[in-house]
Amino acid sequence: MEALELTDKKIDEVRQGEAFSPFDNDPNKYSKKFYIESYGCAMNFSDSEIVASILQGEGFGATRNTEEADLIFINTCSIREKAEQTVRKRLTEFRKMKKEKPGMLVGVLGCMAERLKSKFLEEEKLVDLVIGPDAYRTLPGLITEAETGQKGVNVLLSREETYSDIAPVRLNSNGISAFISIMRGCNNMCSFCVVPFTRGRERSRDAHSIVNEARDLFERGYKEVTLLGQNVDSYYFTDSNHPMDKAITFAQLLEMVALVDPSLRVRFSTSHPKDITEDVLITISKYENICNYIHLPLQSGSSRVLQLMNRTYTRDWYKAKIDQIRKILPECGISSDIITGFCTETEEDHQDTLSLMEYSEYDMSYMFFYSERPGTLAARRYEDDIPEETKKRRLAEVVALQNRLSHESNKKDVGKSYKVLIEGESKKNDQEWKGRSSQNKTIVFPKADFDVQAGDYVMVKVTSCTQATLLGEIESI
Ligand code: 5AD
Ligand code: SF4
User: Fold this and answer.
1) H or E element that contains 51
2) Burial letters for 414-444: b for 16+ Cβ neighbours within 10 Å, e otherwise?
3) Who lines ligand 2 at CB under 6 A?
4) For labelling, which of 290, 317, 326, 361 has a CA lying 20 to 30 Å from the CA of 50?
5) Which residues are involved in binding [4Fe-4S] cluster 1 (predicted)?
6) Which of 115, 203, 230, 299, when mutated, tests ligand 2's pocket best, judged by the most ligand atoms within 8 Å of its CB?
7) How far is it, in rounded angstroms, from Cα 232 to Cα 277?
8) At CB < 8 A and 24+ separation, what contacts does 29-32 make?
9) Environment class of 347 (CB within 10 Å of its CB; exposed 0-12, middle 13-18, buried 19+)
């Protein structure tokens, strides 16, 4: 999916902020404990918080220690082969643990569960549960079955499930920023992408439950929400209980969330270039708390390759979209996803990608070489004909260019001041804060003598930069 990529990171950070922690060490409170590890996109991390909520409702407590766990879950990603290999490696380690602790159950959740279905039980011996992204409500029953020695599998995809009524239990939160899932699935069928097969058809979550979740987070001290979906711009909610009501579009939803409170920052991810509307851009410009940052995956700069990818836009069309964003939101940060070495990609196509990256002046990009995924349109229709070394060489060129563009973009910010939401202490130095600007750039600055804390906004003047980070000093609070 096109989304904030957190690939290969685990949920292992739980900090302050939650009035109630699922990681309660009182041995009398929960009779059983689960451990959950997530891979892949932000949507998977968000889903793990739904799973945690369902499990907690059944009396399971969370633990960060696999040795304490009665249940181990791994929420998996299928987007590239490497993501699946990482999961397989981790499962091998869980298998060893299970041999030492036979009563323990191991469950595979998410996209790999959906893609491999019950094959998982044959391929990966000692996996007890296989549950696809739309079947988490059936977890309690499947766990009970698995406890009696049967294998539990549910990989049914749904056209309706949005887990709208389930309040996520925040697992990896800093108490300041949280994800809110606004839609599930994807109808786009980009030819390289496995997501439409693993996450099913697009459906939008009830707008009122989204706003309520944002309000609840704000009341609990959160200062930033990121609205998540594979393709947020095609959000379209029609209330089946009130069919005469007008549908709610993404632009309207953004406005509804922005109105929760002016000091709650609103972000969103991911936008498909073909779907982001002028209305969305105008809504962003109207509300100071809707961040000036758009993740707008290009994938390729060649119109020919874009057509093979089934992206439904051309190079010129994408350029016009960038122009429109720059016109309506001159301060907007823009980032991208790029794939190198897609089927039939020539050196000329590759040069088209590089030149369009230059044109777009991305602040940041997630960059990958093409990895054929079984069952996708590309796997069925086209030969994966670009040698791996060529894919990797082109990727290295794309990465080098992005590094230069990021550095240039950062250099332009030196001397300017930004409103920064403090997220916590800088990892390297406890005398410094780190936070982000509206444009999603990380800024590090000395605490100095200002009486502020994580969750506060400060005005920071940028004094210098590296390729990845802005450095500054507090100007005012
Ligand atoms: N190979 C390489 N990259 C891929 N992506 C999606 N599918 C593939 C694939 N088969 C990338 C796209 C997408 C991002 C989340 O992952 O760039 O936007
Ligand atoms: Fe994103 Fe396209 Fe995959 Fe949908 S099919 S998740 S739009 S890359």
Assistant:
1) helix 42-57
2) eeeebebbbbbebeeeeeebbbbbbbbbebb
3) 1-2, 186, 188-190, 193, 195-196, 230-231, 272
4) 290
5) 41, 77, 111
6) 230
7) 11
8) 29/61, 30/59, 30/60, 30/61, 31/59, 32/59, 32/60, 32/61, 32/70, 32/71
9) exposed
Write out the binding residues for [4Fe-4S] cluster. Answer: 41, 77, 111, 186, 190, 193
Judge whether 54 and 22 are in contact, CB under 8 Å: no
CA distances from 175 to 217, 297, 312, 444 (A): 9, 29, 39, 19
Kind and range of the H or E run holding 462? strand 457-465
Q: Which helix (H) or strand (E) holds 379?
A: helix 377-381
In order of start, what are the domains of the chain with their CATH numbers?
2-154 (3.40.50.12160), 177-410 (3.80.30.20), 417-476 (2.40.50.140)
C-alpha to C-alpha distance for 454 and 450, rounded to whole angstroms: 12
Residue 66 CA to residue 35 CA, distance in Å, equals: 6
Tracing tokens 């016009």 back to the chain, one arrives at 320
Alpha helices per DSSP H over 101-220: 111-116, 119-123, 139-147, 195-199, 207-219
> Which-ligand-closest: CA of 313?
2
Establish whether residue 342 lines the binding site of ligand 1, counting it when its CB lies within 6 angstroms of any ligand atom: no
What would the pLDDT profile of 30-80 be if each residue is shown by its tens digit?
779 999 999 999 999 999 999 999 999 999 999 999 999 999 999 999 999
Question: How many A from CA of 69 to the centre of ligand 2?
Answer: 35
Which residues are documented as binding site?
A: 41, 77, 111, 186, 190, 193
* Residue 452 near residue 462 (C-beta atoms within 8 A): no
Residues 6+ apart with CB under 8 A from 22: 52, 56, 61, 62, 169, 171
Strands 432-436 and 417-425: antiparallel
CA angle, 432 then 436 then 441, to 5°:
110
Q: What is the CA radius of gyration of the chain?
A: 22
Three-state DSSP class for residue 61: strand
Mean pLDDT lowest for which of 119-123, 139-143, 158-162?
119-123
| pLDDT at position 352 over 50 | yes
CA dihedral of 278, 280, 286, 292, whole degrees rounded to 10: -110
